[in-house]
What we know:
Elements: E1 7-11, H1 15-26, E2 31-35, H2 38-48, E3 52-56, H3 64-73, E4 82-86, H4 91-100, E5 104-107, H5 112-129, E6 133-139, E7 145-151, E8 157-161
Parallel strand pairs: 1-2, 1-3, 3-4, 4-5
Antiparallel strand pairs: 6-7, 7-8
Helix pairs in contact: 2-3
Amino acid sequence: MTDCTATILIVDDCPVALELLKTNLSSESYRLVAVADGAQALRTARELLPDLILLDVMMPEMDGYEVCRRLRADPLLAEAPIIMVTALEDRASRIRGLDVGADDFITKPYDPLELRTLVRTITRLNRYRHGETSVGAFSLPTGIRRICTVSAGARRPVASSP
């Protein structure tokens, strides 16, 4: 999987915030899926198994903390990276988010470059953690060109062809 195929679930009850996040990430060619509430986020996450979840904290009905807690309790979603995107800046809010399972925080208003960089880093680390493979070509000292599949986790050839 490449960065351009990473699926990112964006959860925010504010339509303007959703559009802003989508706009800021659209240049990276991710598959972006936006939902407006916690219950919808849980259903959609189970369907998509996203590579990353960007989760607002302050939402009606079910806040981001509860959504995060439920995501971590679900065996299918427990390891999905979660970044809380919030206007809350206080230490207690950040610690509470980390306690329920968030991997990181980004505070609104956020720097678009910081957001894109954080998302790119986390999606890359997530691919590596899952041991997804890449294909590359190399030349042997004899001049023979080989194509091999490399396990991202093992970093060694697992198959090759002439």
